[in-house]
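Troubleshooting: if your tokenizer reports a length mismatch, compare your output against this known-good record of 232 residues.
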Amino acid sequence: MNYRLSNEGAFPLVLVTLNAGEEIRIESGAMVYHNGKITLEGKMNSNGSGGIGGLLKAAARSVVSGEGFFITTAKGTANEALIAIAPGSIGQIKELKVGESKWCINDGAFLACDSSVTYNMKKQSVGRAMFGGTGGFFVMETAGQGTMLVNGFGDIVEIELDGSSPFIVDNFHVVAWESTLAYNIKAASGMFGFTTGEGVVNEFVGKGKLLIQTRNISGLAGLVKPFIPTGK
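Known-good structure output:
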């Protein structure tokens, strides 16, 4: 993917240049502008499956993992086609090299990928799905080879785990992790973590990279909610 960021701050645009016939996939609604040399096509988020089977797969992904029912394909109609995209959250954008590693992606983190990159839905245990918010009943696991862009709320910090001991991360701060890492979801402390106010956490074990976001969008929502007019 031939791209650059418009700036290094918290609100960048991703400026992607495509040649004629070249495609990328982007999160539905992520397009900000293009230079007229781009066609956009919304497709069911079914990872290539068509017909009734594709419809059911897209619907299932939307329900069980929180993904959008549609994904947008941007295609260059001429060389030097330019499209600008942006995530919905306020924060950093990070590049993942898919193929060199397999990555698991948390809900809402996907922004864009090469057409050569796909992903599968990796089933989680019922306990993980019900106890924690990471991915619901399924998480995205990358496949193929190429570039994927993910976004986080705040900065994205990359941590290299050496497998020497478990590593604990608050459930709402996880962005992505290499599939070489195993994880469990559990209470931070006490009865469901309420004694410390930390709630549930992810415990990662093994060797691999872990991406975390420095801010908690759920916490921001809690701060803003009292100030939203109710209409009464």
